Amino acid sequence: MGASLSLVPVLDYFARRECLRAGLHQNAVTLPYPDGGAGATCTVQYWAPQGEPELPPLLLVHGFGPRADWQWRCQVGPLSRHFHVIIPDLLGFGGSAYPSETAPPPTEATQAAVLAALLGALPGMERRRVAVAGTSYGGFVAYWLAREAGPARVGPVVIASSDLLKTAADDRAFLKRAGEGWGGVDEILLPAEPAALRKLLELASCRPPPRLVTPDFLLRDFIQKLFTQNRERLVHLLKGITVGTEKFQVTPISQEVLIVWGDHDQLFPVEKAFAVQRALNGTARLEVIPKTGHAPQLEDPARFNKVMLDFLLASHKPDPSVSGSAQ
What we know:
Blueprint: H1 8-21, E1 25-32, E2 41-48, E3 57-61, H2 68-71, H3 76-80, E4 84-88, H4 108-121, E5 130-135, H5 137-149, E6 154-160, H6 168-178, H7 185-189, H8 194-204, H9 216-226, H10 231-239, E7 257-262, H11 271-279, E8 285-289, H12 296-299, H13 301-315
Helix pairs in contact: 4-5, 8-9
């Protein structure tokens, strides 16, 4: 009986419920795929309120891992009281797909271009300025979107737990922190065995769940549903990451930026937060959240939400593309 227990549908239910309670609805749109040649298309699944925005738009970009609604489930309610929240699944995650058999994997630039196209396709969003927040891999995409779209299209930017300066040396240091027996970063980021998933939880969390409540059969179920079924697609996506190469050069951007980091993050250690701040000319605001790891938005959502809301509400400026009082 125990071996048939699965928590994935339960977590999925609660994540979807938070979105629905916040007035968001799930939709999908077909868009051109930038890297696929003439006629190539991709599908983007997203959560958003119906109709045109009555509040300032806010785009939440998830990291490498479960679907977007899982990763932002603790933010959607508080943020939706002040913003028109849009939560897409990036290409290759959740319900978003691209022609992986015939086209190269999406880079961060490709993901950003598709998000820009998504914003242009949503009702009332053609010329609206949007705030953007990205966590981990989503921070790479959020940064690229802000840089390429410019301040007329993208307003304040939140970069959470996202090492824009990651290099091969950082990957080697990560493997050293993980201990002996790992052949590559992908063995941990895309776990195939309970030991690998347990190690990922240990490195990503300040307070990882104890072994007593994470027996191997539960971890195998998570691996099967979140990784095994999508492994080929996820491996393809890893190959598209350009951070740490000459294709991803970090330069200052003109938008106001908030950097948020967990002080116990072992995937991207907190000292990298200060390096990212320096790379952005030292003008970005930096908030380190104590007693959290790689996902402070889940480990201490109350603190994370306050930091993020304080920044976004203080940074919000009237959108010149909107007339009247609706901002």
